[in-house]
């Protein structure tokens, strides 16, 4: 019974890790994406830089994913 | 939470205006333009961001007139674009700031009708940058007389003021229209940190406008009551009591009483009792305003301030190009033209 509860908590922790980092990345990306689109509308040359800047907050989701994987497979 | 949804709207518009500002002519280019002859200046402008406007108007106008109209058209189109690409709060603030162009256009059409100018002559002077679109301005310019123009504005905020017109000189309603645009703008500004600075800028702009009025009217020896009725209240440093005091002074007294205000630093080297032209004061005050807008635009990057900076920089670029072209046409010395450039 105790083992089952721990597994459940680990799964919830992994979910929170991915979920919250995804939310954070989304909040960060909304402004960066809007600015990138704005810059691209004026000058299409900004496409590469704009895309790169927009995906930078995605790295935080990778950290969340790593934490989730550690939780799921190490503990 | 609300700010979370406002931020992308500001991020989009500020990225666009910053990209647009990058395309403006850098101030290092003005000395090069001063070394060119008029045909070279026209060619330079034809090959710049004004190309589309020059091409479209080239069949109708030639030489310096073509340049003037292309610059006005580009200015109007740039400002209208800002209103088209923004939404929500930022769009509201831009629309209110651009109301001054509605006032400018209404004043131009009324003056045109007053002096019996032709429809084409009137339309050549309007800048379609406000809420009133070009087709509406065209319809107004087609009207027979001032009364018809006023009745065509029935559904605008300007109508209550315009109905006060009882014939004769237009200056009274013109002053009231100016005041209305500033009153509405001051009421529109919110309480976020960026908007507080925007409010400070508007108040500074009112001060600068009042200073220009004071210099002009006092130099012309206009009576105190007339000066006082022309001034706009709501400034930052020049409060109502200051305006009352300054409007009662002579030109010489006015010059000596301005050193207690921060604007004195910007104009002190061109102001004196014996000054013959007020152009230098205007140029210095405009430069002060432009530098202030540029400076505060970096304080809150996701606010109305970078948009304001662009609006002002674009207007100054157009004015500078006009000064250079007209100066060259009149064969003025480079030094005189340079002194009238806002940099």
From TrEMBL, chain A:
<protein>
    <submittedName>
        <fullName>ATPase</fullName>
    </submittedName>
</protein>
<feature type="domain" description="V-ATPase proteolipid subunit C-like">
    <location>
        <begin position="12"/>
        <end position="71"/>
    </location>
</feature>
<dbReference type="Pfam" id="PF00137">
    <property type="entry name" value="ATP-synt_C"/>
</dbReference>
<dbReference type="InterPro" id="IPR000454">
    <property type="entry name" value="ATP_synth_F0_csu"/>
</dbReference>
<keyword id="KW-0472">Membrane</keyword>
<comment type="similarity">
    <text>Belongs to the ATPase C chain family.</text>
</comment>
<dbReference type="InterPro" id="IPR002379">
    <property type="entry name" value="ATPase_proteolipid_c-like_dom"/>
</dbReference>
<dbReference type="GO" id="GO:0015986">
    <property type="term" value="P:proton motive force-driven ATP synthesis"/>
</dbReference>
<feature type="transmembrane region" description="Helical">
    <location>
        <begin position="50"/>
        <end position="74"/>
    </location>
</feature>
<dbReference type="GO" id="GO:0045259">
    <property type="term" value="C:proton-transporting ATP synthase complex"/>
</dbReference>
<feature type="transmembrane region" description="Helical">
    <location>
        <begin position="6"/>
        <end position="29"/>
    </location>
</feature>
<keyword id="KW-0812">Transmembrane</keyword>
<dbReference type="InterPro" id="IPR035921">
    <property type="entry name" value="F/V-ATP_Csub_sf"/>
</dbReference>
<keyword id="KW-1133">Transmembrane helix</keyword>
<dbReference type="GO" id="GO:0015078">
    <property type="term" value="F:proton transmembrane transporter activity"/>
</dbReference>
<dbReference type="GO" id="GO:0033177">
    <property type="term" value="C:proton-transporting two-sector ATPase complex, proton-transporting domain"/>
</dbReference>
From TrEMBL, chain B:
<dbReference type="GO" id="GO:0046961">
    <property type="term" value="F:proton-transporting ATPase activity, rotational mechanism"/>
</dbReference>
<keyword id="KW-0813">Transport</keyword>
<dbReference type="InterPro" id="IPR044911">
    <property type="entry name" value="V-type_ATPase_csu/dsu_dom_3"/>
</dbReference>
<dbReference type="InterPro" id="IPR050873">
    <property type="entry name" value="V-ATPase_V0D/AC39_subunit"/>
</dbReference>
<keyword id="KW-0472">Membrane</keyword>
<dbReference type="InterPro" id="IPR036079">
    <property type="entry name" value="ATPase_csu/dsu_sf"/>
</dbReference>
<comment type="function">
    <text>Component of the A-type ATP synthase that produces ATP from ADP in the presence of a proton gradient across the membrane.</text>
</comment>
<dbReference type="GO" id="GO:0005524">
    <property type="term" value="F:ATP binding"/>
</dbReference>
<dbReference type="InterPro" id="IPR035067">
    <property type="entry name" value="V-type_ATPase_csu/dsu"/>
</dbReference>
<keyword id="KW-1003">Cell membrane</keyword>
<comment type="subunit">
    <text>Has multiple subunits with at least A(3), B(3), C, D, E, F, H, I and proteolipid K(x).</text>
</comment>
<dbReference type="GO" id="GO:0033179">
    <property type="term" value="C:proton-transporting V-type ATPase, V0 domain"/>
</dbReference>
<dbReference type="GO" id="GO:0005886">
    <property type="term" value="C:plasma membrane"/>
</dbReference>
<dbReference type="InterPro" id="IPR002843">
    <property type="entry name" value="ATPase_V0-cplx_csu/dsu"/>
</dbReference>
<keyword id="KW-0406">Ion transport</keyword>
<dbReference type="InterPro" id="IPR014272">
    <property type="entry name" value="ATPase_V0-cplx_csu"/>
</dbReference>
<protein>
    <recommendedName>
        <fullName>A-type ATP synthase subunit C</fullName>
    </recommendedName>
</protein>
<keyword id="KW-0375">Hydrogen ion transport</keyword>
<keyword id="KW-0066">ATP synthesis</keyword>
<dbReference type="GO" id="GO:0042777">
    <property type="term" value="P:proton motive force-driven plasma membrane ATP synthesis"/>
</dbReference>
<dbReference type="Pfam" id="PF01992">
    <property type="entry name" value="vATP-synt_AC39"/>
</dbReference>
<comment type="similarity">
    <text>Belongs to the V-ATPase V0D/AC39 subunit family.</text>
</comment>
């Amino acid at each position: 019974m105790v083992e089952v509860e721990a597994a459940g908590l680990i799964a919830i922790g992994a979910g929170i890790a991915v979920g919250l980092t995804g939310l954070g990345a989304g909040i960060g990306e909304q402004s960066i994406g809007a600015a990138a689109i704005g810059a691209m509308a004026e000058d299409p040359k900004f496409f590469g830089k704009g895309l790169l800047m927009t995906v930078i907050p995605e790295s935080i989701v990778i950290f969340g994913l790593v934490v989730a994987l550690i939780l799921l497979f190490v503990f | 939470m609300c700010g979370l949804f406002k931020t992308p709207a500001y991020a989009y518009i500020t990225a666009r205006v910053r990209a647009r500002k990058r395309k403006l002519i850098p101030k290092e280019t003005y000395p090069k333009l001063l070394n060119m002859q008029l045909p070279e200046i026209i060619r330079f402008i034809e090959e710049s961001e004004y190309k589309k406007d020059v091409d479209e108007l080239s069949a109708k106008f030639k030489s310096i007139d073509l340049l003037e109209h292309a610059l006005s058209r580009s200015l109007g189109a740039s400002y209208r674009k800002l209103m088209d690409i923004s939404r929500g709060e930022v769009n509201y603030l831009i629309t209110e700031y651009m109301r001054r162009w509605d006032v400018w256009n209404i004043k131009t059409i009324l003056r045109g009708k007053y002096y019996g100018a032709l429809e084409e002559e009137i339309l050549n002077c309007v800048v379609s940058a406000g809420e009133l679109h070009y087709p509406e301005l065209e319809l107004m310019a087609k009207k027979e007389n001032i009364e018809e123009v006023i009745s065509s504005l029935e559904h605008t905020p300007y109508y209550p003021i315009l109905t006060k017109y009882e014939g004769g000189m237009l200056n009274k309603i013109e002053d009231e229209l100016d005041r209305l645009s500033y009153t509405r703008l001051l009421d529109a500004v919110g309480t976020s940190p960026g908007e507080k600075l925007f409010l400070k800028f508007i108040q500074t702009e009112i001060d600068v406008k009042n200073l220009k009025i004071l210099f002009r009217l006092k130099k012309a020896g206009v009576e105190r009551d007339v000066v006082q009725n022309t001034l706009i209240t709501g400034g930052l440093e020049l409060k109502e009591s200051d305006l009352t005091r300054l409007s009662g002074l002579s030109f010489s007294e006015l010059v000596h009483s301005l050193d207690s205000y921060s604007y004195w630093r910007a104009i002190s080297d061109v102001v004196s009792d014996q000054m013959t032209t007020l152009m230098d004061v205007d140029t210095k005050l405009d430069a002060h305003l432009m530098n202030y807008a540029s400076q505060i635009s970096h304080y809150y990057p996701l606010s109305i301030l970078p948009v304001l900076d662009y609006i002002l920089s674009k207007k100054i670029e157009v004015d500078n190009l006009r000064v250079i072209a007209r100066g060259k046409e009149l064969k003025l010395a480079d030094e005189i033209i340079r002194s009238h450039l806002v940099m």
